[in-house]
Amino acid sequence: MKIFFNTHLIQRHASKQQGFSLVELMVGLVIGLLMSLVVYNVLNVNEGRKRTTTSLNDVNQAGSYAIYQLDKQIRSAGSGFTSGGDKVGADYTFGCLLDMALSGGQLTPATTFPAPFASVGSAIRVAPVIIYDGAAGAGGDVIIAMSGNAGLGEAPTGFSSLATTATLKLVNQAGIRPNDVLLLADAGTSILPCLVQQVASTFIPAAGGSNVTLGGSYYSATVNSRSASDFTATSQAINLGQSPNLNMFAVGANNTLMRYDLMQARQTSAVAASPNPSVYVDSVYQLHALYGVDTIPASSSLTWVAPTGTFSAANLLTGTLAAAATLKRIKAIKIGVVMRTPLLERQAVSASTLQLFSDTTLPITVNLNPTTYRYRSFEAVIPLRNSLMLK
C-alpha cells in the first residue's frame, strides 16, 4: 500500500501554528505597559483625592470640636465668683492672687509652668477669662478660663467672726455641702490674695449653724504663707462647687491644642496616667482671641480689643481696683482657630498667609508654613454670660 502526502496542505497548516512574531510581542507589551501606567495614574489620582478629602473632613470636624470645647469653657467662665449677694463677688475676686494646694502640695503660685504655658508666669490671678498675647510663640495666644461648677449657693457668704486654720465661721451654712471647694476672698484698698479651701467630708449642715469645718484634698493649713485664719470678719466665702474648672489652653508641639488643669499637679511624664498638660484637640495650628469690651458701662454694644496695652494680661492682673474695674468691662471673647491637615501634599496647595477677624478693625495675619499642607480657619463669638450681669 502506498501513502501519498499533500505537502502543500501540510505546509499551510504548519504556517498557522507559528504564533506571534517578536515585533508583535513587543508591541503588545508596550500597549499593556501603557495601559498599566494609565490605570495606575488614575488610581493614584483618585487615592490622592480621597486622602485629601478625608484629611479635610477630619480637620473640619476637629476644628468644630475645638470651637465647641472652648465655647463650653469660656461661656461659663466666672460662674460662682462673679455672682452677687450683699456684696458682688467680683469686687473681692477679680485680679486676686490665687493661693491653692492639692494634698499638701502647692499648685499656685507655681515655680514654673511647662511649655506651651511657660510664658504665663508663676503667679495666677482670678478672672473669668484672660488672654496672654502671643505667649505660646508660633502657636498664638494662651487663654485662661475659670469657673465654678454647680455650687448650691454661689452668692458670697460673709464671715460672722474670725476663722481658725481648720474652721470657718460664716453668717450661715446655706448652700454649703461636704467636699465643696470654697474661694476665700477679702476686699480692701487693693485686691487681696484669695485662698482655695475645701469643706470636710464629715461636715454636716445644721439649721442656724455657722461653723464650717475644712478638710479634703484642697484643704491645707497654710498655702503660700496664708491660712484661713488670716481672713477677717469682712471677708467672703464663695462656693465654687465640687469640681471647679480652672484651665489654660495653648497650642503646643505637633499642632496640638493643649490644656493645663490648674487644679491638678504637673504631670509631664510619658507614663503618667493623667498627664498635665494634656492633649485637648489635634491638628490645631494657631489660637488667637480678642476681648469684647463694654466701652460705656451698661451699653448695648461692644468694641473688640486686642489683649495688649491696657488689656494686656500684665495690666489686667496688677491686683488693683482699677484693673478689676477693667476686667468687669470684658463681656465677650472672639476666638479664632487655624487648623492644619496632617496630610503633606507633593506641591504647594495653600497661600502663604491667612487672615483672622477680618470683620473687625483688628485683623490678624497668620503666616502659613509650609504651604504644602491645607489650612482651615474657624471663628466664634462667645459671650461671658456671668460677666454680662456686672456693671
Verbal overview:
- It is a single chain.
- This protein has 391 residues and is of the alpha+beta class.
- The chain has one domain.
- The chain has five helices and 19 strands.
- The strands form five sheets. Strands 2-1-8-7-10-5 form a six-stranded mixed β-sheet.
- The longest helix is centred in the first third of the chain and has 54 residues.
- The radius of gyration is 33 Å and the shape is elongated.
Characteristic key phrases:
391 residues, alpha+beta, six-stranded mixed β-sheet
Sum this structure up briefly.
It contains 5 helices and 19 strands. By secondary structure, the chain is of the alpha+beta class. It has one domain.
Secondary-structure map:
Layout: H1 7-16, H2 22-75, H3 89-93, E1 98-102, E2 105-108, E3 129-132, E4 142-147, E5 157-158, E6 167-169, E7 181-185, E8 194-198, E9 211-213, E10 236-239, E11 245-252, E12 256-261, E13 278-282, E14 284-293, E15 303-305, H4 313-316, H5 321-328, E16 330-340, E17 353-356, E18 364-367, E19 375-383
Parallel strand pairs: 1-8
Antiparallel strand pairs: 1-2, 3-4, 4-11, 5-10, 6-9, 7-8, 7-10, 11-12, 12-13, 14-15, 14-16, 16-19, 17-18
Kindly report the average pLDDT value. Answer: 86
Radius of gyration: 33 Å
Q: How big a fraction of the residues is strand?
A: 25-35%
The parts where pLDDT drops under 50 for at least 5 residues are none
Shape: elongated
Number of helical stretches of at least 4 residues: 5
